[in-house]
């Protein structure tokens, strides 16, 4: 029975799912709890605003009762003659009678009083000053009005307006301070003014045998105009109190209530709610974005770790292949030499094969070591001044046999005016070794022209060294990853290798302060250009 292996889901997919769960669940719980808390706070604020409105209504009603009682007391002390437009009075320094205009005939009424009025037994309504609103006044005089020892009880009197001019009688017909008078106490009643219910105080008056009813209407449209209303719009209305923000007015004889409008407080509450929700929204959005960024970082680390693991696995497989092939050749030819097998005339050839395979092993080891130093930031260069042509000629002499052995030809094209430059000789030889080895390896079996061109020139003072082949070139999709480590072994050619050659070239060139670039050759082929700075 063969072995069976259980394969789990990819690490990246698992990390994404777990991270999404780790982010979404806490954020969802946070949002749910935050929304519930906001609803609770909003309910508390609205309840507080309603409670505040009710408390204000209670306070306004109590305060108004005191104000009305104080108004009734003040008006009770007012001279009854002030309700007449004119009346007769005696001077302070002489005993002669003179005509006196009512103090209420001009100027403003007290803030709590809308209008003063007087009704005679014929139903005529008069006032200290002309007022068109008196035409709409309906005065209930059906209650009991005690005047001295007498008492009256009658139904509502039919009323009509007596022109103010009718009261401008001769001086002999005017009421005066000498008239015999009996004045009753003010009592609260409900009448109508301008078609709306009106709270009014009425008292009975007997003046020289004539009966009158005097009174005043209370200002009830906006209590804030004459008393403290606690920041609410308070209003006095007829009837018993309702269920919300209303309170019965504690005065005897009438059923009125004070109501306040809670919309002002509710608007303030809604503003606070909006601010709280905006604050929570911004906080939640910031926290959610931070959680997403953190989760994305975790996923990126997992992806990077997974990619690194794949690259390491691929590197291990490629390294095993790269090392196994030359080791097998070394072992084969070594055993043949040791055992005296083969053609005795080929001993030198066998030895050369062992040397070539050893050099191949050396290149692999050097690439791995250089890559390791680069990863550890431990790469150092021995920069010295060298003659460029001399070094490149040496490189060409070293690499030409290797290229020829593979069926290729290394063509060196150098200008004698290259002069000298500062570089690490071993590093430059490693750069060119990798580029020429790549050119020979990837054009093998894929090109009829096996020439590899090595050239150098001065470009804007910098040294530009080119390696060009006539192979199949590099696919467009692969070029962005061309100089990354461990990605060369899975190109379209499927040529074996560690995928470190071009990575080490780029690393060494940049360590010199230069760079390497790829150029597509017209008609096919690949060109790599290494630039080294002048100084």
Could you give the topology of this structure?
Layout: H1 11-76, E1 86-90, E2 97-101, E3 113-120, E4 124-126, E5 144-147, E6 150-153, E7 160-161, E8 181-183, E9 187-193, E10 196-207, E11 210-218, E12 233-238, E13 246-248, E14 256-261, H2 263-339, H3 347-375, E15 384-387, H4 388-405, E16 409-413, E17 420-423, H5 425-443, E18 451-459, E19 462-468, H6 501-511, E20 515-520, E21 526-532
Parallel strand pairs: 4-7, 16-18
Antiparallel strand pairs: 1-2, 3-4, 3-11, 5-6, 8-10, 9-10, 10-11, 12-14, 13-14, 15-17, 18-19, 19-21, 20-21
Protein model, in words:
The chain has 535 residues and is an alpha+beta fold. The chain is 41% helix and 22% strand. Strands 3, 4, 7, 8, 9, 10 and 11 form a 7-stranded mixed sheet that branches. It has a 5-stranded mixed sheet with strand order 16-18-19-21-20, covered by helices on one side. A hairpin with a 3-residue loop joins strand 3 and strand 4. The protein is rod-shaped, with a radius of gyration of 56 Å. The relative contact order is 0.08. The N terminus is likely disordered.
- What's the CATH C level of the domain at 375-532? Alpha Beta
Gyration radius (Cα, Å) is: 56 Å
Q: What's the number of helices? A: 6
Share of residues in strands? 15-25%
Tell me the CATH topology of the domain at 375-532: Heat Shock Protein 90
**Count of extended strands:** 21
Ends distance: 68 Å
CATH architecture of the domain at 375-532: 2-Layer Sandwich
Question: What structural class do helix, strand and pairing data support?
Answer: alpha+beta
CATH H level, superfamily name of the domain at 375-532: Histidine kinase-like ATPase, C-terminal domain
Shape: rod-shaped
């Amino acid at each position: 029975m063969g072995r069976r292996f259980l394969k789990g889901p990819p690490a990246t997919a698992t990390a994404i799912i777990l991270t999404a769960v780790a982010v979404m669940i806490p954020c969802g719980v946070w949002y749910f709890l935050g929304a519930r808390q906001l609803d609770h706070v909003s309910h508390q604020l609205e309840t507080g605003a309603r409670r505040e409105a009710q408390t204000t209504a209670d306070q306004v009603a109590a305060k108004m009762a005191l104000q009305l009682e104080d108004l009734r007391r003040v008006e009770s002390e007012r001279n009854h003659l002030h309700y007449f437009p004119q009346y007769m009075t005696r001077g302070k320094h002489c005993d002669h009678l003179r005509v006196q205009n009512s103090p209420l005939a001009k100027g403003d009424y007290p803030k709590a009083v809308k209008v003063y009025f007087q009704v005679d037994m014929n139903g005529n309504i008069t006032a200290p000053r002309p007022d068109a609103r008196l035409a709409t006044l309906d005065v209930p005089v059906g209650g009991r009005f005690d005047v001295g020892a007498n008492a009256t009880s009658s139904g509502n009197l039919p009323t009509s307006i007596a022109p103010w001019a009718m009261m401008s009688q001769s001086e002999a017909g005017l009421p005066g301070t000498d008239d015999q008078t009996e004045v009753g106490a003010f009592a609260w009643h409900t009448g109508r003014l301008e078609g709306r219910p009106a709270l009014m105080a009425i008292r009975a008056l007997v003046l020289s045998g004539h009966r009158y009813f005097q009174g005043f209407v209370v200002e009830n449209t906006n209590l804030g105009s004459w008393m403290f209303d606690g920041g609410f719009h308070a209003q006095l209305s007829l009837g018993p109190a309702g269920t919300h923000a209303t309170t019965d007015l504690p005065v005897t004889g009438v059923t009125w209530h004070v109501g306040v409008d809670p919309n002002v407080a509710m608007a303030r509450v809604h503003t606070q709610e909006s601010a709280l929700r905006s604050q929570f929204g911004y906080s939640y959005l910031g926290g959610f974005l931070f959680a997403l960024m953190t989760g994305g970082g975790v996923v990126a680390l997992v992806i990077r770790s997974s990619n690194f693991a794949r690259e390491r696995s691929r590197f291990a497989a490629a390294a095993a292949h790269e090392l196994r092939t030359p080791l097998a050749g070394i072992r084969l030819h070594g055993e043949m030499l040791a055992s005296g097998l083969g053609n005795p005339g080929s001993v030198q050839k066998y030895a050369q094969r062992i040397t070539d395979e050893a050099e191949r092993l050396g290149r692999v080891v050097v690439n791995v070591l250089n890559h390791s130093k680069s990863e550890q930031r431990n790469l150092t260069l021995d920069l010295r001044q060298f003659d460029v042509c001399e070094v490149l000629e040496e490189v060409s002499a070293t690499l030409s046999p290797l290229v020829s052995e593979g069926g290729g030809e290394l063509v060196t094209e150098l200008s004698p005016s290259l002069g000298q430059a500062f570089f690490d000789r071993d590093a430059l030889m490693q750069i060119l070794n990798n580029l020429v080895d790549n050119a020979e390896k990837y054009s093998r079996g894929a090109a009829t022209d096996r020439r590899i061109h090595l050239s150098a020139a001065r470009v804007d003072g910098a040294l530009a060294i080119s390696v060009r082949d006539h192979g199949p070139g590099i696919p467009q999709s692969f070029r962005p990853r061309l100089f990354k480590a461990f990605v060369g072994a899975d190109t379209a050619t499927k040529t074996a290798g560690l995928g470190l050659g071009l990575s080490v070239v780029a690393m060494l060139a940049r360590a010199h302060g230069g760079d390497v670039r790829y150029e597509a050759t017209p008609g096919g082929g690949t060109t790599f250009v290494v630039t080294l700075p002048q100084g």
